[in-house]
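Running low. Got one?
___
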Amino acid sequence: MNKPFTKFLFAALACFFSACASPKFCTREIRTSDATAMELLAASQRAHGKKTFAKVHDVSVRYDGRWASIGPRFQPVLADTSFRRGSEERLLVGQCIIAQEHTGPSGEKFVIRTPRKVTVGYNGSLSTNDETRRAAALVADTYTMFLLGPFYFDRQGVVLAPNGEAVVDNALCDQVLAVLRPGFGFAKEDRVILFIDRSTKQLRRVRMTLNGLESTRGAEVDVTFRDFRRIDGILWPTDFDERIRVPFDLHAHHWKLISLDTNRGFRASDFAVSGFKNRAVRILRPLVEACEFQ
């Protein structure tokens, strides 16, 4: 199949599914948090180790992943599959700064995301492409949420409301709608549904809008968390499965947490687009084998 026809087919399918899809998120204006929703989030934070997490200054992780064959083709700039296969990432929790060193068949991609800006480098050279920067900011913000789980929503600009119930992996979950202002990346607003296990209070899934790019507005994606492990008093998911839900239902991405370490004491000055330096290069604690993919 030639490339022009493939692009036309993808565009036509996207328009068709977008027209057929029904919205899944509450769209009403929400300005104040509901007490029931706040308690559900607080219960999930306690289950994940809130007291211990309060002492975390920084988190270091390593991921390995596999992209689906079709889903990422609809958002090539966001997926950036030539560079985003595996990654090492450093998060300064209190400062909300994340640095990501992605690797793929085309080389290395480095992203530094602060609350006000994003810097992107490919194989050591800075990128000035606006869409690339916006996509990198969106990915950095959502990956911070995936890693921190319920702790991510303990910040300014988040309003919570009950959103019914649903079943995830045979577990009944209470849903909490979180309205984020600002949203992911450079979006003014995004909405996230948290699926909180009614029994264990684990955060089993998030479903989110992606308004940070013109090409993803109106899209909905969910990520399911599995294989939880308690490390130094904090419960972390080690398996992440992403599906596109709107405008079509397709598998997008599956990745695993390979290594994790906390409180290594690095600073924002340890981050540069040429790669990690100083204390940020120490060996991480291994969790699972990179090849353990289904």
In short: The chain has one domain: 24-281. The first helix runs from residue 3 to 20. The chain has a mean pLDDT of 88.
